[in-house]
């Protein structure tokens, strides 16, 4: 029966139908073949709390290009999809919904009910998100789909926690952490972004205890002076050498504190003398440890002054600051105040100013994990594309600090630690004092111990905190494959081939995957890290809701088709570089999809006998074999040029120059094949040159569809099924030699 290509390409008429055919064919699910080396990508799991954004569309496009290309090379190719529970982000997001729609807080529901409701919410969002991934053409193996809170993945997380604790890599201690009052949890250093803010530098006189005068300190946070336990100067600062070892009267209190010398003090800041508040500043905390200074927590997690602040207890920070300044002025202890612009930490999620607080938390000792992870990159076991990110990675890893992995959340992996209920003060307390000296009796176990090994009678209580989301995400490349069990998938697909992700989470995620991968499995988790850039608008601004320049990828797919969006995201861009995106750009690449469609339609209409035999292709058998035909010198040059283009594309793809390969394909197909060759050959499609002309155009069209398929899978598959239906799906065809 005659099958002709319709006049126009309608993405809506094809995309869902084609995707269902691909998925139903089982082609996304690789078979384990011990004779072949697999190609494996574990998808960076999108957060299961909202719809996909344009950044997701970029990584989906890049990874789908990679896996379609390697699948067409005949390699067993696994692209394993998944979703992340996203502890802080999901809990904060859902709490806002709960407040808006029901005027309730999580405390109104209670922990168990809140987690149950949030899980239901995440499942629904995850299903919607997976539908969006399909709309973008993601050819991932849905039979292996994973979620960070799946029972088997969670079991692997708890197994890792216990293993690390038993190996002395996890400890519980009181250290300075970043506290976000809006998210109501501690944060790691990586979850804090520093922003320049306008403030004031206040110069305060601290009277020397012997009455001989004052030492003047400069501070942007006068309210924290209530927790000062020392004044520090640089040991090389000649101005203060005679004062080191003396004591000062701490204003507004009845305490005396020492003057100490420490190299960490900047002689050029303020007066060169600084107040030391170990409980509320990271540098002060380290100085305090070196000099064995006491720690006083004077600001609580509610941003109010604690009882340790004396007369200022219960005041919010700003109110306490005003009162402290007023009292200091009354006593004549303020020398001056000057305007001062300085950097202050803010939560990366909610943008609230964070408060450095001493808190009892769970930490990972990073140094033993970092050393082999550094060596893996230095020795080339893991390579970065582009390679400039190796230096970025190494600089950070060589100066890394211990990792705070506990979060004061309800949503996530609850820390598998059980405390004796009859002991006091054992559950984490953000405002507890380091000097308490309390003994803590606990058991690390995934399940509640049947009997308390300490008091022999109580029902043990579990740690309230959950694990940092990046802890479970750091295990993602192998827990998704069945580890710690030695499953067939783990044995065959691990280590994986490529980890493709944004350069902005190289420390959040990439570094932790490398450290935990080597520690848990003894092998690197992947061979190559492909870093993509950020998506910016056409003016170069970062895309964000606050700027009002958000581009909804699914809206673009609805309007112009998935192929147009994909080419707009990837063509002409390079790994590690930011890419610009606009609706105009997507619209332009819709025209490219139409160009492919119209070129195939023209050739089909002009080639004799093609319409009645769609399975043979525009050149009949000649598209499969050009030898033995009467090709003239021009034909040979045209075919040699196409062969050179094919080799260039394969070379670029093998080097992960995806954007360059896409741009070259676009340029060749549109400007050389369509604008020049079809025009040149169309008068030769009848008469004595018909067979050769048909063979040349047919050969280029058919193999161009193969090369283009990873980039624009829907339009190429639609053309292929119209012209070469009986040859099977284009998805499963081999690349041109």
From TrEMBL:
Transmembrane segments: none
Enzyme class: ligase
EC number: 6.1.1.9
Occurrences of domain Methionyl/Valyl/Leucyl/Isoleucyl-tRNA synthetase anticodon-binding (ranges): 635-736
Domain of life: Bacteria
GO biological process: valyl-tRNA aminoacylation
InterPro entries: aa-tRNA-synth_I_CS, aa-tRNA-synth_Ia, Anticodon_Ia_Val, M/V/L/I-tRNA-synth_anticd-bd, Rossmann-like_a/b/a_fold, tRNAsynth_Ia_anticodon-bd, Val/Leu/Ile-tRNA-synth_edit, Valyl-tRNA_ligase
Reactions listed under catalytic activity: tRNA(Val) + L-valine + ATP = L-valyl-tRNA(Val) + AMP + diphosphate
UniProt keyword list: Aminoacyl-tRNA synthetase, ATP-binding, Cytoplasm, Ligase, Nucleotide-binding, Protein biosynthesis
Keyword Aminoacyl-tRNA synthetase: yes
A GO CC annotation given for this chain: cytosol
Aminoacyl-tRNA synthetase class Ia domain segment(s): 18-581
Family: Belongs to the class-I aminoacyl-tRNA synthetase family.
PANTHER family with a match to the protein in the record: VALINE--TRNA LIGASE, CHLOROPLASTIC_MITOCHONDRIAL 2, VALYL-TRNA SYNTHETASES
Protein's name in the database: Valine--tRNA ligase
